[in-house]
Amino acid sequence: MSEVVYLDYASSSRVDPRVAEAMLPYFKELYGNPSSPHALGTRMKGALEESRAKVAWLINAEKPSEVIFTSGATESTNMLLRGAAFRSREKGNHIVASKIEHISVLNTLKYLSKSGFEVTYLPVDSTGILDLEALKASVTDKTVLVTVGYANNEVGTIQPVKEIAEIVHSKRALFHSDATPAVGKIPVDAQKDGIDIMTISSWDMYGPYGIGAAYVKKGSRMEPLILGGGQEFGMRSGTENVAGAVGMGKASELAKLEMAGDAERIAAIRDKMVSRILSEVPYSFLNGHPTKRLPNNASIRFNYVEGESMVLTLDMEGIIVSSGSACSSKTLEPSHVLIAMGIPHVEAQGSLLMALGRFSKPDDGDRVADVLPRIVKGLRQMSPIAPPEVR
Amino acid sequence: MSEVVYLDYASSSRVDPRVAEAMLPYFKELYGNPSSPHALGTRMKGALEESRAKVAWLINAEKPSEVIFTSGATESTNMLLRGAAFRSREKGNHIVASKIEHISVLNTLKYLSKSGFEVTYLPVDSTGILDLEALKASVTDKTVLVTVGYANNEVGTIQPVKEIAEIVHSKRALFHSDATPAVGKIPVDAQKDGIDIMTISSWDMYGPYGIGAAYVKKGSRMEPLILGGGQEFGMRSGTENVAGAVGMGKASELAKLEMAGDAERIAAIRDKMVSRILSEVPYSFLNGHPTKRLPNNASIRFNYVEGESMVLTLDMEGIIVSSGSACSSKTLEPSHVLIAMGIPHVEAQGSLLMALGRFSKPDDGDRVADVLPRIVKGLRQMSPIAPPEVR
What we know:
The structure is a homodimer.
Chain A: E1 5-6, H1 17-27, H2 39-59, E2 67-70, H3 73-87, E3 94-98, H4 103-114, E4 118-122, H5 132-138, E5 143-147, H6 161-170, E6 174-178, H7 190-193, E7 197-201, E8 212-216, H8 242-280, E9 284-286, E10 297-302, H9 307-316, E11 319-320, H10 336-340, H11 345-348, E12 351-355, H12 364-381
Helix pairs in contact in A: 1-8, 2-8, 3-4, 8-12, 9-12
């Protein structure tokens, strides 16, 4: 599989070898419950707290104790949205979200709707940027929570987070941001950005699976989702996954130190790939914002061809891409993100998501650009809806 | 640390080296989202399903799809109790539990009490066995859920699970059992035991941390706790922790194959240790049932001495034990389990929990029995409450 071109970093990533190395002792000789008073326990507690401090450093939290380890981004989002909403019930029952949130946000909001909350979904423009005027108009004194993803995992668009925070705080609501695709890839500064509560993924920054974090700024209204022994400052019970925390801590440290270099290198490969595809494949268009986008994201739609067919054809050539979010790939619905951006259904279904990562090789982009014109042309020749001139 | 005698397997365990070995490729070359349609994704999906089948095999589930991977036992318990209760709300609002449940069960029940459920807590006898007459009397047509741990993690007492299941089912209630300390150590057969929903831990059977499972017998009333992309048959969203699942699968396979041999070897060390301690340390008593107990558990109380002092003194001699559950060790309250068994507060505070495991060495028991008489005597000499004859 060494020749595979992997462009599905939005769905999964290999663990950074340095992260795996850091975790290894915890699968071999190190063990002990961090809550135990004996020497083995206190050593584990030390490793856990050191890792927490590294995550806090990455996002510039004021205190390490504002970082709660969870089992991953989805749990963090469930906990943060539910915890903030139920804890704020006395203030109001209104929640505001963008239409292009991740499915974990959307499905948690559906649950909250059934539990008595009213949710307003805000539009985005054709590049995926939140409509700030609509936000201003929707946030009221009854609004307890506003949730807008830091950057979109499908089209890569980065939101004007600081401006959003100011509007949210003007009505004393809590600002949640799902920063899963952003943390570790672009500078996310919880304090400067004005974020109150935030979802943080581990594997999205080359850390292990099965661990994640929730940032809860001191003083934020919050309650736990998973109850038990009161670990994680009472905010998330369950025996701590120290190996996972150590891995996520190491991944955070590496991201902090290498983010700028990674971003520059990855964006260069991405930019060349995108510009070649757009010029060499007729009727292809970039989704998302031309400049305010994640350095690793390329989302391109091809008229008169289905995304799923391109994914499978490319797979046979050893090129791994996706047609959208793996998290919702079971439904054959077109991406709700692309639809919200005003792209017609039939065009949305012809999208490819190519997400690069730390381990992308310099010629990965060219490998794709070399074969895509032929593949798209072949698929269009079989398409009943393609007009003669594109076949 | 090679000379350490580790008797705190109820709080934490090292990962079995064969489990670590099985996981290693997933930290090195293997990755891909199991929901992705491409080759890397389907390979991961295969590994996930193979692991699920191994967990199902261990507990004799009818179908692998009855096993839901979670982040650990605490999450499983939260999901199962809440999911069963809320999903059964139309039938009734009554829940029955034993008084000696794990703190994750008790705190989830507290939450359910605040959410409109009524919980009846049943007594146990002096050995920790549930009062079956009290169970019969408490379960009514309004009872939706009964939760009784398969075996107690502090005193090791194994419940008459089959008889409990029959009583529960006579009123068409759901039977949940937290089998965290039991699965992998004694034969747990979900079908024969009549369990509807069950909490399963990974690390308690020498698997990795950060993963666990929930058994949900087909047809059981249940709803998910963590919402999102609909992974795990819609019962637990979030990108799957394949490395963790593979580790838990391997741990399940090893447990199935080696359980009988492990139990015999470990119980022999334990029995010799217990009998030496009880005969060589005056005023020492075994907690729990003399025979219906986990093969690795030794819980002993020593009058006129504090458990915490013994833990720290033994720690300095390289012997790691605990004074009770690490999950609730932050509170200085005596164990609710010992109190429910009728042991006076002051005696309960003098308990030591010595839990052996797969990696216990033949002379570990003797190492403890060799030093305990001297240590207990020393501590009693400093005790203001010890009568002259025990000093």
